Amino acid sequence: MEMIDRKEREKNLVVLGLPDEIKSLQGVSEDADNIKKVWEKIGADWDQVESYRRLGVRGNRPRPMLITMTTRDAKDSALNTKALKTAGESFNRVYVKKDVHPSVRVEWKRLRDAEEKEKQRPENAGCEIRLNTREKKLYRDNVVIDTWRPKFFQ
To answer: Of 5, 126, 128, 134, whose CB neighbour count within 10 A is largest?
Structure first.
């Protein structure tokens, strides 16, 4: 099951912070035009976009947008660009990330929250608390105190 899910997501990207159609990004209010504007800024090829759609229900925050690329290489090249960081004020809250299973997102959030909680604890004053994202482990003074434990398909 997990392999099937990974295969389905391997060409997907998620764009966060892209304004909904009501608001505009540099004078553009349609989703397609917003995505094209982002793709123009990062230097990615718009012809490599197979499909796109908004995720979630409309609320007061911009909904994420799921973008399916034609190939995995196209996805990787769009991810590897750093151009949005220097693209200006309109794009400073727009992020392009790879699509992952919801349980993976939950686990990353759990580890980030655990890191923050450990930093706030009074008994950890003077201790080095750090989350190593490559190893997927949380350390206190170079001793592992928490590790990656995703719960897939339960």
So the answer is: 5
